[in-house]
Amino acid sequence: MFVFLGPGIVIASVTIGSGELVLASRSGAVFGNQLLWCFVLAGAFKCVQVYGAARHITLTGEHPLTYWSNFPGPPLWFPLLIALPTLAVMPIAFSAISETLAGYIHELAGPLAGQQVGPYQHIEFRENFWGTLILSLCLCLAIASSLKILERVSAFVLGILLTCVIVSVAFCHPDWWEICRGIVWPRVPEYDAWILKEYADTFERRSPWLEIALYLTAVGGGTFDYVGYVGMLREKKWGLAGRTTASREELNALVNSNDQAAKEQLQRARQWTRAPLLDATSSFGIVILVTLLFAILGAEILNEQHSVPDNSQLLSQQETFLTILHPQLKWIYRGGVFLAFIGTLYGAFEVYKYTFIESIRAFSPRFASKKNDRRNGQLMFGYCYIGGLTMIWLPQSLAGNVVDRMTFGAVIGGATLCGLWCFAMLWTDAKRLPKPLRMGPALWWSTLIAGVVMTGLGSQTLLVYFSD
Fold first, then answer.
1. HSE on the CB side for 421, CA within 13 Å?
2. What is the CATH classification number for the domain harbouring 265?
3. Other residues' Cβ atoms within 10 Å of the Cβ of residue 148
4. Residue 452 pLDDT
5. For residue 117, what are the β-bridge partners?
6. In this structure, how many other beta carbons lie within 10 angstroms of the beta carbon of residue 374?
7. Beta strands in 232-362 (DSSP E)
8. Distance CA 248, CA 258 (A)
9. Could you read off the pLDDT of 374-400 as tens digits, one per residue?
């Protein structure tokens, strides 16, 4: 079974970082345990979303993004709807994650005085310098690594984080009744009075729906991660993925044949769908668990202290999650932060390389070759690196702060596109696969519900974001 834990673990490590250490903790600090439902639903629905697409490439050898070019209407309109916002927000992710860790390094180094450097205040210049160094280091690691190494590093980082937070939550003795109520009772609470008083600059004009947009994307990432995840299955060669592409006619011939060899082939096809199922459910299960644990710690510790991770202090306040056990455990937390964020950036280069390659396959199939894939991957590295550096060095008066950029990326590439993806998979399943290979009733209804809920929540956040 462990052989089939691969790309999903990479996705988990990519999203566990800013998502859990920052945004889940921020949720607990701001709303207590009231938004735990958001993390559970988002994780469960995105697991369904990802598995449906991974199942498709396993059975057909074709990425769903490629088949979506057959959607009724103008040519390529749906693949463009998915791919263009996805590609547009990638530099935001690289800059925001780098700057979050850079701000933490600046805090650890202590307040050092200095003069303004060009258009930058001294602190902003130092954080930009550290962000550039971090992003450059992760680019070098990505160039020198392989998917196998990445999977092992990711699993190691996840193990450390999971162990630490479980111990911390157990020590806090949280109110499990409140936690259960927060998981099963969907609601969008208003800000407490102390939030609007002590953090007025941040939250006074910020709708709680925008916070939900952040949290929905925090769990497991967004479409920019999932296009790449499905493409990574070509390297695993599960089923037909990475081997060949079976047309609808070939699949029909297989399921309609009475030949014993054809029946065995059909049974083998069904068995192969277990590999992406195990990978998706295990990785999203880990993501949901870690997210809930950090949100609970935020509610138990930060909310009680009236302390919210915000602006340049997005990581330092969470040190108390471990120092409540012993002051010297701050070093474990600091080491975990560096491993998590370096792993996030390091893995994001690899995942987004596949995102770009699969987008090219969908728009220009003639460029789909090993030689071109290598070149396109290098172009993706350059785009993410240069785009990330540009966002880092743009003055905050133009680019906004880290949370503002995260919010924009979450609104554009988050729940709405994930919901539309689910609807597209239902259409693809009916059009591309013969009946014996289509989704079962449980998966079909889960995909439909996931599409309705994520599209609804995402549309609400889009409306609030652009109307403010």
1. 34
2. 1.20.1740
3. 10
4. 94
5. 120
6. 12
7. none
8. 18
9. 788 888 889 999 999 998 888 877 777
Q: Quick check: 336 and 161 in contact, CB under 8 A?
A: yes
- Residue 294 has a pLDDT of 87
Print burial letters for 451-464: b (CB count within 10 Å at least 16), e (below 16): bebbbebbebbbeb
Domain assignment of residue 326, given as a range: 2-467
288: its two tokens: 């949901």
Let me know: does 438 contact 429? Beta carbons within 8 Å.
yes
Three-state DSSP class for 117? Answer: strand
What letter does residue 401 receive in the DSSP assignment? -
Q: What's the whole-model pTM score?
A: 0.86
Angstrom distance (rounded) from CA 276 to CA 271: 10
Q: What does the alpha-carbon distance between residue 174 and residue 213 come to, in Å, rounded to a whole number?
A: 26
C-alpha to C-alpha distance for 48 and 422, rounded to whole angstroms: 8
Q: How many of the other CB atoms lie within 10 Å of CB of 108?
A: 11
Query: Alpha helix locations (H) across 110-247?
Result: 122-144, 147-172, 176-184, 193-198, 200-203, 208-218, 223-236
CB environment 112-142: b (16+ within 10 A), e (fewer): eeeeeeeebeeebbbbbbbbbebbeebbebb
- Report the amino acid identity of residue 242: G
Counted domains in the chain: 1
DSSP, collapsed to helix, strand or coil, labels residue 313 as strand
Distance CA 45, CA 447 (A): 8
Tokens of residue 74, six digits? 């103008």
CA angle, 77 then 82 then 86, to 5°? 135
